[in-house]
Description:
Blueprint: E1 5-8, H1 14-28, H2 32-35, E2 44-47, E3 49-53, E4 58-69, E5 72-82, E6 87-97, E7 103-112, E8 117-126, E9 132-141, E10 145-154, E11 169-179, E12 184-194, E13 197-208, E14 217-218, E15 222-226, E16 230-234, E17 237-242, E18 245-249, E19 252-254, E20 258-269, E21 272-288, E22 293-311, E23 316-325, H3 330-333, E24 343-354, E25 357-368, E26 379-389, E27 398-409, E28 414-430, E29 436-452, E30 462-476, E31 479-483, E32 486-498, E33 540-550, E34 556-566, E35 586-595, E36 598-606, E37 613-624, E38 627-636, E39 648-657, E40 663-672, E41 679-689, E42 693-702, E43 712-721, E44 725-731
Parallel strand pairs: 15-44
Antiparallel strand pairs: 1-2, 2-4, 3-4, 4-5, 5-6, 6-7, 7-8, 8-9, 9-10, 10-11, 11-12, 12-13, 14-17, 15-16, 16-19, 17-18, 18-20, 19-20, 20-21, 21-22, 22-23, 23-24, 24-25, 25-26, 26-27, 27-28, 28-29, 29-30, 30-32, 31-32, 32-33, 33-34, 34-35, 35-36, 36-37, 37-38, 38-39, 39-40, 40-41, 41-42, ...
Amino acid sequence: MHRRFKILYSKFICRWALIGLLVSASLWGVSAEAQKLDASRPALIQADEMSHNDALGVVTARGKVEISQGARILFADMVNYHQRTNTVSATGNVVLMEPSGDTIFADYMELTNDLREGVIRQIRVLLSDNSKFAAVTARRTNGNRTTFSRAVYSPCEICRDDSTATPLWRIKAERIVHDQSAREIRYKNASLEMFGIPVAYTPYFVHPDPTVDRKSGFLAPSFGSSGNVGGFLRLPYFWAIDNSRDATFAPIYTRDEGVVFSGEYRQHFDHGAFEISGSIAEAERRIGNATTKTIQEAEIRGHVYSVGRIDIDDIWRAGYDLNRASDRSYLDRFEFFGDPGNTLESNAFVEGFWGRNYASANAYLYQDLRSGQRPNAPLVLPMFDYNYIGDPTSIGGRFSIDANIRSLYRGDGVDSQRASLKTGYRAPFTSDLGFVTTLTASLQTDLYYVKQNDVLSTEDDGFTGRVFPQVTVDWRYPFVREKGRFRQLIEPMAALVLSPNGQNPTRIPGEDSVVVEIDDTNLFSADRFPGTDRVESGQRVIYGVKLGVFGESDSRTTAFIGQSYRVHADDDLANEVGIERHLSDFVGRVQLSPNRYVNLLYRFRADAADLEFERNEVGFSLGNDALRLSGDYIYIDNDASNVGLEEREEIRWSLFSKFHEDWSVSLSTQRDLTEGGGTLFTTASLIYEDECFIFSTNAERRFTEDAEFEPSDSVVFRVTFKHLGEIESAVK
Length: 732
């Protein structure tokens, strides 16, 4: 009968524990500091049998050998230490558990020459992220280079029902060399297999080892075809300059427009960061509209995006966002740099936060990318803001201060400078009967200097302003009742707003108050204008009711309807979406969510005189990830906005299905329902995603037409291999 031995011996047994350290270091690039095992730390050895052959100088542990030192544990059937040759070997079911979470399996390990060289047979490695690595043999030389023969690598999980099944993808190589000093892994005669079938081969392949966060080299290319520039190939190169700086050079070769030079530079500081990206090309430009086009000779075109941030101290920080293009259609023509939207905004700022105070200084520059003749985009420089909210007073209210200074320049329009100060006090009260009343009082003072650059303007240059006091009383009385599993809510609401009439003289330009809407979200606001240039003056009463039924598991049904009444019509607010009339439109909302599979939302605005709908919105989501249908419908009458927009009626819907654990498909479309409209775009996508591989294909048809681009089709394929990168191919 064997007797189980437990020995605590740190003189030479720690060498056995060192096997695990050197194997791990050779495979995964453990740092030099980690390789220095503390010899003073004892190693605990457990075995069924221990022996020491003095003649041969061999110490042997047999039978369920377990050697642990710290968090590193080595298991084997037998471990030998040859004192004369300074060789440590482990045989039979060798398992090494690393502190990192990696587990190494082998049939045989032998490390010699002060443990700097050695051989490992039938090695298999399970990394902490479930990646796998296997080789017939591994040889370590010079203490920093490991050569694997007939090796396989894959991050894919093995089928639980069949551990011998081939993973989704793997890399097989005749030889793999891990150069620890260079911190890279090199493959010789490597092939990429999908489902066990070779799909790609390279005689030489190299990539950084897992200890490297960033390393210079070529990134995965993207290629395809675009209706705007023809066939293209994008070949990016990444340059890791140092630990805080890097750059990416990404030239794009196009068939129709030659080479587009693009790139990016990034740098991080101790208290900030800086990024800049951009492109430049010599390309022809088309001007006009979809039916009348004029082609200009090739010219220099491009764009620049840049972001900078710096923390000055614990209170103040500064930064900027720069977004500019050479012309309005460049970014849409060269679709490689994302959707710019209708406007590019550039901003520089300094801001500070302390206590209940906020202060900022800003400058804004805009670039309008929409087609057609439009006024110059404004330059705002400078704009100062200060906001303060006080501590609660003895009755629970708070004082507030909002100050603003703004200078705005247009060149072909109105230039204006504004200084504004608004002080206020807000106090909530709750009565014993359950009334919730909020009293708000404010005084806003605005001073303007206006310069009329338009020679057709009838207004004079000079100073103008206003002093605008306002008092608001908001009253709510919620009734709540529980019945069975449901809670019911009925909450009548009312507000009284008092202020002088006629506080919007025509000499004050409405720069930041252009778009104003009345809906269920702002009906009870004291001022429904979004900015400061316009104020909602006069006396009015607001009333409405909120209803709700709330059940278990977040099920709910809520509704709201309301309206406002103005005592005196305000001619200064003419054409301001009905808020200048005695009776405003009715606004409301109904939301139905009986369970997590159904969500319906309906919002409306109806004329007070004939109940004709000025605005209708419907949103819905039905189903779960297995099959989900969602969409939106919107109708806006041409009188529903004060900015002169035409009637708008659109519908968008999408269908999504995750029909398998790894597979999903989606369809979506958007259509203009007005006369002369039609489909705006249609997209379809198919995605496969698991723990080691992502494949996606997205097909899109866009019907947008302009002088520079026509309705187009695009198909984009993306393939992502875990740890290796992404390959993209597009046909547009």
